[in-house]
């Protein structure tokens, strides 16, 4: 432990399971350790749920559902608004906590706290705007009344890469819509979610409306409560493989599902791009969160005429980044989350090099503790390299060259994923033409950042189902009920 401040922030976090408004130990008494990925040091021990804890959390959410659905929208809105304010008031502590358990530099953690809080503000505003409809049947006579009602208790499973934002963007719309929640954060990063749980309780979320399960046996705890049927919705952010397993489990009781799965974003730089803007965008799309984002630019396709210039500028910027423990001043790149994540990056870079790619910067894993990998640029990356097909989830930019727009589009779309693609061009016609033809739920046009709580985030193809954020975000938590009214003549 490096400082008293770190100890103080860690000691303030609840370490139990949140079930029915109480912080409890796991029924088995089991705990699990949370480690600092920059040192391997143990930061905290938190309760590790067993299946019976999962059932208790589901029961609490189910019992709280009717009363929460019946609250005034303004009341739900006010709770979220207070939590938003509290998150901002505690931004420094929350950011430090996130950096400790996840590794990202403090500046990025601060940004994530603000981003996560913004979901609570956005949905506090949406809570009071849930609408419905009324119409006359085309043939006259009957009338159509359309009302929206909360889906019911929701199960959420979130990943470690954005420990606060991924939870807030599910919890915000669910609570706004009048749904209760059982959430399971990733075992690597439970502390941020536990801290958010306390903030939400303090803001007035009633007992049972929000339940938090930390569980290393994710499947053992979640599958029975998915198959139980009392929860009516599952929202998952994580890998495509796990998403498919969960989708099958949801089929048994036909749960509504929202899935935010893997990506394989391309980053297209045309010959008419503003290269400085493209490099700036690339730094953001590639290096935000050390590349550990489903939206991260995974493959760079650059027009032959500007490829050398782009690769040179990018390598210069990447090579100048300061790598280190995220709590240290000036650090821009923290460690990867764990040994598995680091191992994958090492493997994918090794595979690309064995297929003929050349490393222009980085590429050598540092010795010593922590899961550090240096910012790396590879050029001449052949299409058959694993890097062009799998999410690297690390600070590695593989660059390939294209000659025509059709070739660039074909390469970008040659993936089963469809979350986001980035396009850099100053030609308006090309920009719109390419944006229309890209097979993804989102496109970053002359920008390396698409995420915004007020915009609909989500993917197509095997990147997922549904959208989070924007005005459609709350619809994922509402059922439509149509009342046919007769007898009016
Ligand atoms: P990653 O490989 O990046 O950790 P995962 O998709 O494995 O991504 O994990 C995302 C979240 O899904 C985590 O909270 C993890 O605990 C959870 N998870 C993993 N496997 C299962 C499963 N079989 N059932 C339920 N949750 C799971």
Automatic annotation (TrEMBL):
InterPro entries in UniProt: Ald_DH/histidinol_DH, Ald_DH_C, Ald_DH_N, Aldehyde_DH_dom, Aldehyde_DH_Superfamily
Coiled-coil regions listed in the entry: none
Aldehyde dehydrogenase domain residues: 23-483
CDD domains documented for this protein: ALDH_F5_SSADH_GabD
Family matches, as Gene3D superfamilies: Aldehyde Dehydrogenase, Chain A, domain 1 (3.40.605.10), Aldehyde Dehydrogenase, Chain A, domain 2 (3.40.309.10)
PANTHER family: SUCCINATE-SEMIALDEHYDE DEHYDROGENASE, MITOCHONDRIAL
Protein name: NAD-dependent succinate-semialdehyde dehydrogenase
Record organism: Pseudonocardia xishanensis
